[in-house]
Amino acid sequence: MKRIEIVWDDAEADCAWKDLPVEKPERGLVNTSGYLAYEDENYIVICHSYSVNEYCGDIKIPKHL
């Protein structure tokens, strides 16, 4: 498997009460590195470990369309 590193914009959530008006949110940039398990036009799958016929610790990251 090919080792890769990507920077992507993550979704964030918070259920705390906040004062109005709504402030402009900061981008939630994440840096992820690992092995490319799968990629197509909609998403990329990166895993942290793999063996001959298996992989584990994967994350599916949607691509912006």
Question: What is shown here, in short?
Answer:
The protein is an all-beta fold. It is 0% helix and 52% strand.
Structural class: mainly beta
Number of continuous helical runs: 0
Tell me the helix content: under 10%
Spatially, the strands of the biggest sheet line up as 1-2-3-4
Radius of gyration (CA) equals: 16 Å
Shape: elongated
Can you put this structure into words, describing what you see?
It is a single chain. This protein is mostly beta strands and 65 residues long. It has strands spanning 3-9, 29-39, 43-50, 55-62. It has a four-stranded antiparallel β-sheet, with no helix packed on it. A hairpin with a 4-residue loop joins β3 and β4 (55-62). The model has no long low-confidence stretch (mean pLDDT 92).
Main attributes?
single chain, 65 residues, mainly beta, elongated
How do the strands and helices of this protein lay out in sequence?
Blueprint: E1 3-9, E2 29-39, E3 43-50, E4 55-62
